[in-house]
Amino acid sequence: MANTQTRTRPSTIQRTKRQAKSIEKLRALNVQPTEIGDLSSDTTIRVLRLLALYRCVVAAALALFALGSGFDSIVYAATFAYASWSLVSLFTFRRFEGRISSLLLAQLVIDLCFVAVVIAASGTSVTVYAAYLLPIAAAHGWFYRSRMALAHAALATIALLTLEGLLHSGSTTALTQAGVVGAGYFLLTAVGMLLGSSAEESELLAELRSEDVRRMAQVNQLVISELKDGVLVVGSRGQIIMANPQARRWLTGDEAAMSGEQFLDDIAPTLGARWRSFFQHGSTIDTSPIRLVHNDAAEGETGVAKTKTLTPRMTPIDLQERDGTLIFLEDTDAAQAEAQQIKLAALGRLSASIAHEIRNPLSAIKQAAQLIGEEVRDIPQAATLAAMIDKNTERIDRIVRDVSLLGRRDRGTPVVVELRAFVHECTEELAPTLAAAHGFQLADGGHVSVRVDRGHLEEMLINLLSNAWRHSKKLTASVRIVVSSSTETQRASIAVIDDGAGVPKAMRDKIFEPFFSGSGSTGLGLYLVSELAQANGGSVRLGQTVVGARFVLELPLALS
To answer: What is the DSSP letter of 298?
Structure first.
């Protein structure tokens, strides 16, 4: 027997340790184990209802048995009262929230009183009716899972022994039978305790697993929401089951635009046709990018239809059931832009290393051309050739300077600059070089300060003003500059407006691309403005205007 106890003890200890660890994990996750007074547990409510129904059934059975056996009316009254109390307890135990221990003790006392009255009135042996309490003892063990359940079993056993002693004058046989029933109480109480502990451990583990699943689902949702690629789940009928914010922005122009049941064919017919081919054949031969078009008049203030080039990758969700398809949308434009950025960065580093090698002989050529021009001033044809050499050396110098700026995006020292004074200074210095004595007009306004690199700001203004004058009518005040600020967005804006022909619609989406030019220039001016604006936390865009073109440069306001 000792060996058996030695073998069984470690398993009990290990089970207790596992349970303690589970409880600690749940408390670490703010998940509390179910207490005996907690009526929020479905299992607790179910067991209490089963106990109440068990009492009702037993009371009704005893009443029918007493009616057929001709027992005293006291038995009828006891069974009727007990059944009524059982029915009432079936609907009132929720009032004992936090006091289940008291409820169980009160029910046990009522059970013992009922059994005592029935035994005394009928004159039968204790063991005939006392066995009715065996399932109740097991239920108390399940509820308490502690020594308190054994105390209830001891109370029931003492009550039976006392009753047996009073009814049969201490008969040894009667007391032995009562003791056997009492031992049954202890045994079933112990069994209920083991079952309750096992059930509690299972519930704790289930809570722990459900918490892990909830956290993992939340992490997955966050990851999918923050992906730069679009993610779509399309059902077997072509309905969109799920779409992350990036996919909604690309398909509709607004991440909150999808509501209700939407079909892929209605939102993006090209992508819908590609998906249908994949869904029907299990694979797709065409892997080329597709272009999606949606009108977003607010973006860029141009009112031009926006296009997005995407490369879809499709994977079936369930190969057997063919319930749907998982579609990944990769931004081909972004990938191409990133590749172009790498090329431009390499070009910038190359140009920076050879710029001074080009400028040294270029300066010599320019100086020689000027000297020759002074010598041949009286010879018109030679003077024209000298002026042509000087003009083209300036053009080459400007190209070298623009290309060398490609590597300067991240090199800046932001300082506080008073914007209106700086713009006025730039126009005063730039006007003579462009032969625009009265061509620039700065609108009146208040004091606006921004935080920006001075060299970057000067380069951006020179490019915008030169571009505006080049495409204007070259009259007085052909180029207007409006400086304003917004406390709501914490941004200052510089609007450069010319009176020229404006930007053609076919070119509006390309004017900020590098090396794109519609006037024979290098095609780097507006691209450099965009890059330098982003390096200083700002942006540049083509705005709307009735006549000419309007470029808006936005920069962050300086904190006071």
So the answer is: S
Euclidean distance between CA atoms 466 and 482, whole angstroms: 16
Going from N- to C-terminal start, the domains of the chain cover 2-213, 230-333, 337-407, 415-556
Token pair belonging to 465: 């003003």
Please state, rounded to an integer, the average pLDDT across all residues of the chain. 77
β-pair partners for 496? 481, 551
Q: What is the mean pLDDT of residues 16-41?
A: 51
CB of 40 closer than 8 Å to CB of 98: no
* pLDDT score of 555: 93
Q: In CATH, what number does 230-333 get?
A: 3.30.450.20
Fold category of 415-556 in CATH: Heat Shock Protein 90 (3.30.565)
pLDDT-derived band at 424, boundaries 50, 70, 90: very high
Question: Per-residue pLDDT for 365 more than 90?
Answer: no
The kind and range of the H/E element at 494 are strand 491-498
Long-range contacts from 23-29, C-beta under 8 angstroms, 24+ separation: 23/204, 25/208, 26/204, 26/207, 26/208, 26/211, 29/208, 29/211
Helix (H, G, I), strand (E, B) or coil at 442: strand
Cβ atoms of residues 457 and 421 within 8 Å: no
pTM: 0.42
H runs (alpha helix) in 253-308: 264-267, 269-281
Residue bearing the bigger pLDDT, 282 or 5: 282
How far is residue 383's CA from residue 392's CA, in Å, rounded to a whole number?
Answer: 14
